[in-house]
Each structure stands twice: as structure tokens, then as C-alpha cells.
Amino acid sequence: MDIHEILTYLPHRYPFLLVDRVLSCEPGKTITAIKNVTINEPFFEGHFPHFPVMPGVLIIEAMAQAAAILSFKTMGTRPDDKSVYYFAGIDNARFKKPVFAGDQLVLQVEITRTMKGVWKYKAQAKVDDVLAAEADLMCTLRAI
After folding, report:
1. Any idea which residues carry the catalytic annotation?
2. Reduced 3-state DSSP string for the chain
3. Which of 81, 86, 87, 93 has a CA 20 to 30 Å removed from the CA of 120?
4. pTM more than 0.90
5. Measured between alpha carbons, how far is 102 from 91 in angstroms, rounded to an integer?
6. Residue 118: what are its φ and ψ, rounded to 5°?
């Protein structure tokens, strides 16, 4: 999926859109997406300006956005203005390696369970095939 198709699956826009391309997606199972990290990101100005690293919370958010695309593809639908896809939980989050400007973050998300509208995922973010972060995520789609 290119950025134009991604924009139809995520309501996020700059500066909060954190998925640039989907490399592969197997609905009901897994997705692999990328986030190109550039020095132009607005968070770099204030997040350790002397040693700019991508905030961990935004790495988690990037994984969640990939998870949302996977869920919408699995459901065969797209988001609308009558609902929102929320975080319901984040467990076992670990940050293994800093992510810097110029890195390409590869987001790998796998659905581990769905029950009563709650989706559970195992997510990883890698740079150059080295684990940067991982977490177990829970999300849910709710009417506004």
C-alpha cells in the first residue's frame, strides 16, 4: 500500500501519521509497514535536541497505526467519522535500541486474538533488522 491508500485506512494526518508504506498485509494475520524517520519530524526539535531520538511513545503509536490498518483490512472496512479506533491497553512494552533521524522503522504486527470487539496484537519495531521496540497492544473500535 502506498501513502494514498494508507490515508484511506487511517484518520491520522501530519504530524501524527506514522506509517509511510505497507510492505505486506495478510488480513486476519499480519502486517509489515514502514515509517521513514527524518530530521524534519517536529518532535526532534524538543526531544533531546543534542541527541535527537524518536520518542518511544511514538514508536508504540506507529505500531498501533499499523495494527489499525491490519484490523480494518481484516474487517473489510475503512474508518468513518462515526467511530474511532482506540488503544485499550499496552503491555510488555520494551525499548531495546534508540531510533534516530535517517532510520527506517520496520513495523511488524500480528493479530493474536479478537474477542467482543477487542483486538490483541504482538508488535515489533526494527531498524536494520535489529529490534528497537516491542509491545503487546490492545485496541478497540468504538462509536463516537
Report:
1. 47
2. CCHHHHHHHCCCCCCCCCCCEEEEEECCCEEEEEEECCCCCHHHHCCCCCCCECCHHHHHHHHHHHHHHHHHHHHCCCCCCCEEEEEEEEEEEEECCCCECCCEEEEEEEEEEEECCEEEEEEEEEECCEEEEEEEEEEEEEEC
3. 81
4. yes
5. 28
6. -105, 130
